[in-house]
UniProtKB/TrEMBL annotation:
It comes from the Eukaryota. It comes from Bimuria novae-zelandiae CBS 107.79. This is HET-domain-containing protein. Residues 52-204 form the Heterokaryon incompatibility domain. InterPro entries: HET.
Amino acid sequence: VEECALHHPDCGRGYARPHYSPTRLIQICAGGNHWRLRDNSQLMEEARHLRYIALSYTWGQHQQLLLRKGDLADLKKGMNVSDSLPKTFRDLIHVARRLSVDLIWIDALCIIQDSHEDWAAESMRMRAVYANAYCTIAASWGTDPTKGLSVDRDYEHIRPASVQTSSQVTGRSDSAQVRIIEHNGWKKILERSALHKRGWALQERLLSPRILYFTKEQILFECDIHRVCELFPTNPPPGYAPNSSDRRDDRPYTWYKAFVSKEEQTGQFGENSKINSFFRRWLVIVEDYTKCHLTKRSDKLIALNGLVDLFEHLSGEKHLTGLWRSHIWESLLWRVSQNHLGKTEMFPSFP
């Protein structure tokens, strides 16, 4: 994480904003045993640049602790970590301290949940919250905040199987050790996780310049230009993790390069080529998004709004309630992959 922050100037390039701070942040007090809610106006008076960590997680059926209007004053005074927070939030504080960060953002505690006005305003700031986070922590395997980030696991499971081979083709007996790994293992680990099926989590992942996934199998790290994991802490072998040449590699930096990079080919059909590339990437995102679940169907467009905002910013295209003006006819051509399509009385038209 630190190496990316220090040596990857392109991560977040084109969509992160310097000196941004969310409306509210949770401050971890000295020693890590207490926390309190802080307004960004107070924090900005103390430091020009606020480094914070954002959490991406699954709410589950029963969220234990929420910020409500009546709780605001008490949470600003401070609370004990062990007495007030579910395990995932406590684990997040531990990880943040290991990364030398004392500010964190959790939607349940940084957005006033019983205020429609606050929720509406903050939901429109999701792009900025995740795009400007020092790192996003993804609680990938947990189905609710009580599960925690880590899980007891057998480390033998993350080691690739290996076999000893020999050959006499060269006239002498040669031997080599061959490692057997799962093709597209990175993608399959994420697809098996509970968080990957949550609609809101898609833009949280794509908007974050760097993200740590805590999965059942291993910890994965991803930034705009690099991917590593416990199994391959330097460079994953070809076929294990996506790379920038993969058409489904949806990291925002690939969009940035497609639209504003000086190296982008221009000419007779240069601009049209850029727009078509943009639209193809958008279709991949919509395809992935429609496989996810939303607790409230009314969130369908809101939960994608941060990505829409980013695409508009990078491409200059006009967004029309889930569709794009330059490709509006193509956007209306979709089909369902399941037998049942639920009734909808709202836009966008994709299910």
